[in-house]
Structure formats: structure tokens, C-alpha cells
Amino acid sequence: MKVDYEVHNITGVESGFEYIKLPKHFSEDALRRYAERQKQKAVTISKNWSKEKQVEWILRNYLSLKMTLASTMLLNSAVFSNENNLQIVVPYLYYYSLLNTSRALLFSNPFIEWKQGGLISSTHQNTVNQVYNELRALSDDVADSIKKLLLSTKGYRELYSYRFPANGLERYSSNGESVIKEEVAINNARLLTEIAQFNSEIMQVTGDKHIQETFELTNKDLEEGYKYKGYLVDENEKPVDLRDGEDWYRLTYFVRKKIYTPTNLLWIAREGLIEDFFGAWTHDRFEDDEGAFDPDRDNNILLSPL
After folding, report:
1. What pLDDT was estimated at residue 283?
2. Please, are residues 265 and 196 in contact by the beta-carbon 8 Å criterion?
3. Which domain holds residue 42?
């Protein structure tokens, strides 16, 4: 498809984000129709702004960004694994990179209900179904392709987690083709990320125009984003609630700086946040090991420029 339009002219936000995949997959007319659809819903949200909506969209923007960064880490881990013959983890890494960029899209999409935080714990199947339905607003072909890829990578992840076929990571075909091609996983994760960024720009420009009042927040108002419940148990098998200090610091930044209206993903991906997120996955003993995995490598594979 010939690229002859600027995506930012459609969203109305000069964010500086590099749209690579959207112009290749969708015509300008298709993207403008999608933008109008999204704006209509965003206007309704913005004109009915409340403290609850304010908390919701701070959390949604942060979670959308974090899912994108997590997928970046997963994809770069897959690249490293492919280069170093660490094949057993690759199906897991491909699937969750695509699942998490799907979640990033849903968090950023005004049509997807928050359900008082229930969206955070949405099942894998619900995530796949919702992404499919939302992508159909852009293209049936793209929606079908993404759904098939999600289901395929999910199937391979389960196959190589529970049954361990003796053939290893080869398809059951004569040419021994890779289960999922690396570039396919990366390109589709990038496409999902770009749609998430697109939606976040729509929410920003609409909120800036139609939100008439914002509300003071406390750090506790955002605890849904930095407290984790129901994942771990103690020695007595009682649930343990975890509080993540880094998530707390990054979320309470919105309170400290009074950033109370929706902001596009690239703009909240501040340098310190990016450095700390990827830096958390480097142990000191590997800093001088040139053969070790570098979590900072290609950290703009999905969200760029960082």
C-alpha cells in the first residue's frame, strides 16, 4: 500500500511517534473513519468526566504503556533466545508479547469497559475476542489475521509447555519451518502498539477539548496500579498482597505533577521510566558480560522514538 499521508494529521496530536505499520495496513480513509468512531466515544467520556474516570484513565494509560514495554522485553528476549539456541522459551515469549500488546490496545480503547478494574484481569480468551471485535472496526482482514496469530501462538505455547513434542520447535512439515517467524511476531506486535498509541492520541486531543473539570487525587486513589492481589500465598497458604515501589513511584508522578487528563503513551514514556523499567532486568554481575542478554537493546522496537 502506498504511504501518502501522516497519521498525526488524523489524530490531531503531533506526538512525535513514528507510525510505521498503520500507513502500510490501512488507507487514509479507513483510518479517518476509525478516528471519528473513536472520537465520538471519547467525547462522551470527556463530557461526563468524574474523579472515577480520571483515576481510570491514568491507570489505563500507564498499564497500556507498561504492557507495551513488557512486550518489548519479551520480543527482545525471543530474539536473544533465537540467536543463542534457547528454543524452549520462544513460544512463550511470542505469545505473551502479542497478548500484552493486545492488552495495551484494549486499555487505550475508549470502547472497552473498565469494569471497575476488572479489565486488568480479563481472561486470555476475552482479550483475544475483544481485540478481534475492535480490529474489525478497521479491517476484517487484519482482525482475522491477528486473531489467527494469537490463537496459533497460544496453541504452541501450551503445546510446548504441557506436551513437549519430540520434534522440538519444528512444524510438522517437510521443510522444518519455524513455528512462528520472528519478524511476524515483531511486526504484528508493532501494529497492535501503533493502534494503542493512535487511540491514546485520540483520547488526549478529545480530553483537552472537552474535559471541563479535573479532580485532586491522592496516591491511594491509584493503588489498583501498584498493588497486586491474589497471585502469591504465604507459608500458611494465605493470600499475600504485594506493593510494587516502582509502580507506586511512576503512578504517583501523575498526582505530584497533576497530570489529570489522558496523555498519549509516548509522552508518558519518560526517560527515567524507560531506563528504570529495562534496567530492572539487569543483574550487576552481568554488566560487563558482552554475551549476556542486554535488556536495553532495541528498546524502541515497538514504541519509538524512545
Report:
1. 79
2. yes
3. 8-215+260-286
Structurally, how many domains does the chain consist of? 1
Q: Cα–chain-centroid distance for residue 84? A: 26
Q: What are phi and psi of 9, to 5 degrees?
A: -70, -20
Other CB atoms within 10 A of residue 16 CB: 11
Does residue 19 belong to any structural domain of this protein? yes
Name residues whose C-beta falls within 8 Å of residue 53's C-beta, 6 or more positions apart in sequence: 45
Instruction: Return the CA Rg of the chain.
Output: 20
Q: How far apart are the first and last CA of the chain?
A: 27
Which pLDDT value is given to residue 57?
Answer: 98
Spatial separation of the C-alpha atoms in residues 31 and 112, rounded to whole Å: 19
How far is Cα 243 from Cα 229, in angstroms, rounded to an integer? 9
Mean pLDDT in runs of 10 for the chain (306 residues)?
82 97 96 98 98 98 98 97 92 97 99 97 97 97 97 92 82 57 96 99 98 97 94 90 94 95 97 93 80 91 89
User: pTM for the full model?
Assistant: 0.95
Residue 62 lies in a domain: yes
Is 40 inside any structural domain?
yes
Cell (9 digits) for 115: 469494569
pLDDT of residue 164: 86
Cα–Cα separations (whole angstroms), residue 69 to 9, 62, 137, 180, 298? 26, 11, 26, 21, 11
Residue 68 lies in a domain: yes
Instruction: Provide the pLDDT for residue 230.
Output: 86
DSSP state of 178: B
Between CA 175 and CA 190 the distance in angstroms is 28
